[in-house]
Amino acid sequence: MHPSTPALRFLVAESEPPEAREARRASVGRSSGETYLDTLRSLAPGAECYRIKPADAGAGLPAGESLAGYDGVFLTGSPLHLYEETPETRRTVEFMRAVFASGTPSFGSCAGLQVATVAAGGTVRANTRGFEAAFARRITPSEQGRSHPLLAGRPACYDAPAVHTDEVETLPKGAILIAGNRVTAVQAAEIRFDGGVFWGVQYHPELALDEVAGALRRQADGLIEAGLARSRDEVGAYADDVDALHREPCRRDLAWRLGLDEQVTDASKRLTELRNFIEVLCGNRETARR
């Protein structure tokens, strides 16, 4: 970046409640928002990255800041259920409506997609086909998704890290379905509302494989209840393989055993959607600021 060019300014909205935030830190050493901060700094060196916690009571932007002053807003995953009326979900949805109204481009993964959906008038429900855990398999672009810039560089069918028990039931009016799979009909979408644009995915391009392993261990009881494993030892063994692949991504034996290819094992390919968002929408906004 030229010295006279303003740095990109990113805002990460972490909607994990405090207890979930600390459980994740105890498991993998960072909250969902901290993971996003690290990922964004790797994709856009020199970017100024900030974090806000919209689900928390009393959370707000620093004095003198406005949402319009950022080049992009990023919504993290969260255990919040957007079909439940709670103070946390109300605060998070209200924040997202403010993001739309600000005109600042936004991106979200997992619960981030669900938050944007509800904020724009769509609906969310518990997964009808059960827990989608570790990886979303055989994600396929829709007809419009095949040419959408969010998926530029993705093949006709791909896998991605995913851990979720809720899903988008109905997209808001005018939204574009970008991708889906057999388990979750809405795996990626574009939502335009109140002057703002949001690109989101139900999966987690921001997650490294050690964080996928950590999520499996934290949610072992839910995986057993869902019939995806028979014991915590089985969950642990699977998570150990995922962890080992994180440490040695070129191990073909582990990739074969887990049924994964370079769309997951290659960090550059795994981050495709985030990179595309930064290059297209945030790039356009930065150009307009000059």
Automatic annotation (TrEMBL):
Q: Do you know which SUPFAM superfamilies this protein is assigned to?
A: Class I glutamine amidotransferase-like
Extract the InterPro entries matched here: ChyE-like (IPR044992), Class_I_gatase-like (IPR029062), GATASE (IPR017926)
Report keywords, A-Z: Glutamine amidotransferase, Transferase
Keyword Transmembrane helix part of the UniProt annotation? no
The superkingdom of the source organism is: Bacteria
One GO cellular component term of this record is: cytosol
Which terms does the record give in the GO molecular function aspect?
transferase activity
The record's Pfam families line, in alphabetical order, gives:
GATase
**Domain Glutamine amidotransferase positions:** 67-210
PANTHER family according to UniProt = GLUTAMINE AMIDOTRANSFERASE YLR126C-RELATED
Name the chain's protein.
Type 1 glutamine amidotransferase
